[in-house]
Fold each of these.
Amino acid sequence: MTNQVILLDFWPSMFGMRTKIALAEKGVEYEYKETDPWVKTPLLIEMNPVHKKIPVLIHNGKPICESLIQIEYIDEVWSDTYPILPSDPYEKSQARFWGEFIDRKFYDPSWKVWGTKGEEQVAARKELIEHFKTLETELGDKPYYGGEVFGFVDIALIGYYSWFKAMEKFGEFSIEKEAPKLIEWTKRCIVRESVIKAMADPDNIIQYACVFRKSLGVE
Amino acid sequence: MTNQVILLDFWPSMFGMRTKIALAEKGVEYEYKETDPWVKTPLLIEMNPVHKKIPVLIHNGKPICESLIQIEYIDEVWSDTYPILPSDPYEKSQARFWGEFIDRKFYDPSWKVWGTKGEEQVAARKELIEHFKTLETELGDKPYYGGEVFGFVDIALIGYYSWFKAMEKFGEFSIEKEAPKLIEWTKRCIVRESVIKAMADPDNIIQYACVFRKSLGVE
């Protein structure tokens, strides 16, 4: 079967970065279509009619939405190379748990820390720091969340790395001071070819966040 | 290997109902421990230190949290009987997508429609009806979300059935009027032995919701 793979994505998205990393780890070639999610293009609406959000992975014409679901899909379809999820059901459930944690708990304060001000920002920073500490505790002394190997949770979290500098600048805190082992972990991840290629430049993200802050009335 | 299975759950939880249904479909015997999530028992804190929420599935001493993750775990561990998720990666990704949709979009308005009043309730009802219609469209003319078989999305959604009556009573609307095919689908589901055993009595849920409404200052 021919594998025609298209990715609808927007360069600053930490979710899209996950999917790009997973595809790169598997060595899957794909066509990248830059898709600003604030402009609802006909293709985006057709491929993700429910959420109308990026990233959308289109495999042989069929769309897969939601980045964590995309990673699982990629791992299952291209199963003969680099396993992303553990094969053991218990370890797999724990990887899924932390992926969910990042999406449900981490995401909200991670943008509010740079996208709000005043009390809302203070509360977001407090919450975000707690989550950084929780994630650091979960990492423990392992080199990766996947243990000895770079896996599902690593991919789920490292997508945020491009935004760390913006979080620190506008949130006025140091992630390294709060979670030094987590920063050590990022250093191991960001030298991987798949990660280097997927990540947005943190300085470009700061510029993007500046524009966004103005549109939100924060600046 | 001995299979010691314990479920920490609270009777009105639509999430716990999912896990009970999945275990029943697989014919897994387990010890049920009624666990009020508002009372943070030492066992609950030990088994789900991050969220401190039910349901928690404990398999041979190891906890699995989050109901959708529990269903996947149950399906993988007891893989030799009744398959819950489709085996095809694309169909599996779509099942996961709708499970996520129910958790991320449906849950919030589904409690606000009975747990709030005024403008907040009106907005919740509007949103909830939209989601009911979206879910009905996704069902289409299939007997189940799993196609010909009762599967992952069916389990994810039917857990809410016990709450339908409370939603309708306090939200002052008719689900059947808004999404008649969805109600036809519930009728097919609620005759299953696994569902009958798992579901809370809708009238008991109404009584529970009454108590909750008082504590929230809605009544």
Amino acid sequence: MSDPSQTPARRGRPGYDRERILEIAVEMFIAQGYDATSVSALAARLGLSKSALYHHFASKEELLQVALDEALGGLEAVLAEAEARDGSARERLEHMLLGAVLVLADRLAYVTLLLRVRGNSDIERAALERRREFDRRVTALLRVAQAEGTVRSDVDPSVATRLLFGMVNSIVEWYRPTGAEQAKDLARDVLTVALDGLATS
Amino acid sequence: MSDPSQTPARRGRPGYDRERILEIAVEMFIAQGYDATSVSALAARLGLSKSALYHHFASKEELLQVALDEALGGLEAVLAEAEARDGSARERLEHMLLGAVLVLADRLAYVTLLLRVRGNSDIERAALERRREFDRRVTALLRVAQAEGTVRSDVDPSVATRLLFGMVNSIVEWYRPTGAEQAKDLARDVLTVALDGLATS
């Protein structure tokens, strides 16, 4: 990630729309922490006046809310799509896992920000509650797969959910996107390790 | 805290030895960040004068160094012990994974601190380099296991190392120790998912 302080302010620079402002805000939140990032510093980094910034986003809280929605909305959509599929719970689980890795690769900064949230405000607490609800639904899916006999029953499904998403979420620590094919390969690797394990027998 | 009248009640409080000071310092580093934790705040939390604190640790940096050594030293000892074992690379890998989870459970706060390190100082950069060297040795072990045919060859060993330790390291996010048996169960679950996978077939 580039150091946001390196780019000189380009006041009135055209082409800054909502999405670009959001991207840069999230870069700063990740680099120096949400609480430590002031609206003034963000406006300066964007080369915008504070009032021009407020034209796009009503507050720093709105930037955080929209960024967390990008991450959570993507993950929830993948889970809902998987849950709605025909076939075995094992197939729904696989579909969800593949989709979750692709969302993470595609919305890397937003998911990184989500994983840093510790519950310091109402917005952060709501995001944590959505993560917990997501985990509950994955655990329920794992439980159905255990009941149908396609997923092993000797690992507690809530522990398995945590280990699976521990593996998935850790990808934000080292993944640097180079293309859709790379993300698909990674998703397949996660699925292989999670479902079949590293052992050959 | 330059005014000694601030802490007279607990000055010279007995029972605070090096280990207890380290534990409380690490708690504070985790809760509010290493950079944001001042020696004055730490001394106040301990009910010690700064000079009494400096009697045990020469600096805040020394506290960080010793804490990171606890985490890294534990993990490196487990890996060295695994590497020195007879038997297959697959068995050495299993031994290392089980041991790493037990070290994490036993030194939870120290490993948590290690995983927060981002390279903001020489001490942090040295810790990151020791983590990279650890990962290289695990990757080498995986490569030997692939060559002997006990670990699947269709996942890149450095990706596999990252996914394995993504799973292991994520345990610090939710694990709350209640006893050695619980840690052993968790280590067995990690080994089961990592080597055999969640699928029944």
